[in-house]
Structures are given as C-alpha cells and as structure tokens.
Amino acid sequence: AQSVSQHNHHVILSEAASLELGCNYSYGGTVNLFWYVQYPGQHLQLLLKYFSGDPLVKGIKGFEAEFIKSKFSFNLRKPSVQWSDTAEYFCAVNANTNAGKSTFGDGTTLTVKP
Amino acid sequence: DAGVTQSPTHLIKTRGQQVTLRCSPKSGHDTVSWYQQALGQGPQFIFQYYEEEERQRGNFPDRFSGHQFPNYSSELNVNALLLGDSALYLCASSLGAGEQFFGPGTRLTVL
C-alpha cells in the first residue's frame, strides 16, 4: 500500500523567506508525484507534478519540487514566499500502473507573515 | 468552460440517514473519483468511476456506493450515516488516468 508523510504540520514564515516542505512516500514501484495547494476558501489546485524525466519539476507561482528516488522524497521549494502563498499544501502519490487512485499526505499549513 | 461542480455545498444529516452527493466533471472528462477529507487530514480515496462502472475502490465500507451516468456525472451515496462520516467530500475528474481536477467539495455534517 502507498503512504505519504508530510513532515511539517504547520510552517510560519516571513515574506521573502525561503520555503521547503518535506514529503516522503512509501511504494515499491514507479510513481507519479504531485503537490496540490488549497488557498483559504478555494478548492484543491495542482501546483506541479512529476511523471518521469527531469527530477526537478517547476510549477506555477515560482514553486518547484525535486524527486529524489533514493530517498523516496519529493520536497516542495520556493526561494522567496509571499503573503499570498498562505495556504494548505498537500503532497500526493499514485502508482504509475494505477494512476487514478491518489494517496495524499495530511497537509502542511503555511502561514506567511507580511 | 466550467470546472468540476459539486452539489450541495453544505449538508446536515442525522445518524442513520442516507445522503446523496452529486458531481459534474469538467468538460471533456470521462473519469470521476471521490475522496473524503476529514478535518485536519488529507483527502482519502473512496472510489473511481469510468464508463459507468466502479473501477477502483479505497478502504471504505459498502455503505459508500456510487454511480456514474452516461453524461459522466456521478453520485456518491452514503447509507446509515455515522458521526464519523462528517467530512468534506471531494470529487475529482480526469480524462482517463490523466491529471485530476478537483471540485469545491460538499461539507457533510452528521449530528
């Protein structure tokens, strides 16, 4: 069975600080990896995804994530956060052979202070 | 182009009752997945419908059932509601196994 672990439940940063949110997964096969964001009062939106190829993936709004297969990790990064990045972030994984069924982590709430 | 829509937005039921939630997929999508998101947790996969059949199922009891219609819209039914069924129910649509787009969810409260 797949599982996803997000290391930080709540992160508080000041504007312009750098962000790194941890995500580790457990699954023995080939996986697809995702980061979703949920802004206050809005629905889940895809930030970025990794299916194959370059392990450094760039997404919307300046976010990027790096897939490190040997560490089963897919950490999300942003060099300089803005107040508008305040949201909940979810890491998700699905098996390459079973792409319709995603397993999500419990999320990290990011609060950016102006 | 409308995205994924869900109805109702909020719903309050009592224990033992039955509930039906509805989802219309994004235009062009043929696959609908349902997730349950309890407070403070990530979404958990309930099941997925494709070509009007349940194709995959997560670890949810038979009280959770669904249906997909020829126009690809879908319903989630929950029977014999328990307090623990209180959650945000999310619908996600995709074209086959492609990228999933999520709806705003239905907030179910069971009293």
Protein described:
The complex is a heterodimer of chains A (114) and B (111). Chain A has no helices and twelve strands. Chain A has 114 residues and is mainly beta. In chain A, strands 2, 5, 6, 10, 11 and 12 form a six-stranded mixed β-sheet that branches. A four-stranded antiparallel β-sheet of chain A has the order 3-9-8-7, with no helix packed on it. Chain A has a two-stranded antiparallel sheet with strand order 1-4. In chain A, strand 8 (64-68) and strand 9 form a beta hairpin. Chain A is globular and about 45 Å long. The termini of chain A are far apart. Chain B is mostly beta strands and 111 residues long. In chain B, strands 2, 4, 5, 6, 9, 10 and 11 form a seven-stranded mixed β-sheet that branches. A four-stranded antiparallel β-sheet of chain B has the order 1-3-8-7, with no helix packed on it. Chain B starts with a strand and ends with a strand. The relative contact order of chain B is 0.33. The interface between A and B is medium-sized, with 20 and 26 residues.
Give, in order, the helices and strands of chain A: EEEEEEEEEEEE
The oligomeric state is heterodimer
| Range of strand content of chain A | over 45%
Give the C-alpha Rg of chain A.
13 Å
Number of strands of chain A: 12
Low-confidence stretches of chain B: none
Q: What is the end-to-end distance of chain B?
A: 37 Å
Runs of chain A in which pLDDT lies below 50 for 5 or more consecutive residues are none
Q: Main β-sheet of chain B, in a few words?
A: 7 strands, mixed
The main pleated sheet of chain A reads as: 6 strands, mixed
- Overall 3D form of chain B: globular
> What structural class do helix, strand and pairing data of chain A support?
mainly beta
Tally of contiguous helical segments of chain A: 0
Instruction: Determine the fraction of residues in helical runs of chain A and give it as a percent range.
Output: under 10%
Structural class of chain B: mainly beta
Chain-averaged pLDDT of chain A: 92
